[in-house]
Amino acid sequence: MTPATAEPLVRHSPETKWYDYGDLECTEQLTSDLNCFNSIEKQAEILLKRDCELQWQMQSKKNMTETAWLSTILTRGTAKDKVTAMQILTQRHPVHSISYVAALVNNVAKKNAREAFSVLGLLKDLFINELLPPGRKLIPFSARPVEKINLSSLDKDFNMKRKLILWKFESDLKTVYEKFVAAIERLAGENIEKLGILSCRYALELLIARAEQEQKLLSLLINKLGHPNKTLATRVCGYLLQLTRKQPLMRHIVAKEVERLIYRKNISCCTQLHAVSFLSQMNLHGCDPTLASTLLNIYIGLFRMLVFNKKMDDKILNVLLLATNRAFSYAKGDVDKLIKEVDTLYKILHQSSFSTALQTLKLLYQLLTTSEGISDRFYAALYRRIMDLQHGTNVDRQLFLLLYRALSSDTIECRVIAFVKRLLQVCISGFSCGNEKFFQIL
Question: How far is it, in rounded angstroms, from Cα 410 to Cα 113?
Fold first, then answer.
């Protein structure tokens, strides 16, 4: 055996990452010759295995004591010790450590929740800091241009051998990471609150840091908005808001995924409430106008569904109206969409609680002033709601502000006088705390 073949073909420098010298070559057209593809992939597997053996042999010659210690830890150590050893190996020889990472991920996938969770965070850090490339996804072997490989001349072509090793390593890493994400998903589904919250947090960190498996990680988080544990669902809502702040380009993708959750069959009202609550808090400053338009479409569709199914739940309606008011201020060009829903809004107004009715009136006022002007129908609905004032609460203050705006823009004097008389009647009835402030403004 020549000296050249006695050393690994892939050599790693401590100051670099494997993806700094990894091969990015890929093809969109998959090979049609499956036999040829399988033969080349098998050869790549053999080359990778042989390169790992050579690396281990070379390392043993340089430092026999450390190599023996690492070998003992990797075979008989605790799960945490194995991750520590793998962190050392991965930092030094990432390409040649894939089999150890794969073995530990397989163990995590099979172990009980508590044992698996003890190493989950360490593995997450290993993937982010050492293994997953930033700014791109891993390339599977099936997407490589294998038709360029000539097996008959491979023995003498060391550059091509090295390329095949890197192709196979990256493909294996992609498979291992898929299993790791599946393990996180399984742990997030356990009936242990702390375990579920931390699993979702790890999913968030992976999603923010790297693009690999982003669709599965995003689906994992969004599905947890429907978790029966309200603490977990609320925490996930916060995690998704962190995601949209740190990755603003993902806001539209996230909104569409949440929309699919909202309209899923047999979805609970509680899940819809958490979903709308998240969307209503999403930062819309500087966003693409299509995002606000997408949110309006979601809200309008949910309005229709709730009214059609006669599920007039005040909690979700209140949040939905607040969200619609907010999105409308960023999507004034979509006024026609909401104008078509005026009858639906009036139906909600007459069948809901005072706080929900107030949000409906605020939305109607904003909508009508932007389009056709304030109608008699609006003033009639507002007039009827004055008798529902509730001892100077915050909701009352919002109603007084709406009254002030509506009456200030009303050109029919007799109607303004009628409103003032109604307010005086309310004052006499004892609900005068907020009315005094209103008359001071008026």
Answer: 64
Name residue, tokens 């990797």.
74
* CA 153, 158, 164, 168 torsion-angle sign: positive
Among the listed residues 227, 221, 323, 331, the one whose alpha carbon sits nearest the alpha carbon of residue 277: 323
CB-based contact 365:403 (threshold 8 Å): no
And the tokens for 311?
């599920």
Domain ranges across the chain: 10-18+29-188, 391-441
Instruction: Give the count of alpha carbons within 13 A of 231, CB side only.
Output: 8
Segment 185-190 long-range contacts (CB within 8 Å, at least 24 positions apart) = 185/216, 185/220, 186/109, 187/113, 187/116, 187/117, 187/120, 188/220, 188/224, 190/113
- pTM of structure: 0.83
Tokens of 17: 């990452």
Tens digit of pLDDT for each residue in 61-110? 877 777 788 888 878 887 778 878 877 888 888 999 999 889 888 888 87
Q: Are 149 and 164 in contact (CB under 8 A)?
A: yes
Give me the amino acid identity at 253. I
- Round to whole Å and give the CA distance between 442 and 223: 49
Are 298 and 282 a contacting pair, CB within 8 Å?
Answer: no
Give the residue carrying structure tokens 């209103």: 438
307, 341 contact by CB (below 8 A) = no
CA gap 8, 92 in Å, rounded: 14
Which residue has tokens 């923010």? Answer: 208
Compute the residue count for the chain. 442
Task: Answer yes or no: are the C-beta atoms of 9 and 51 closer than 8 Å.
Answer: yes
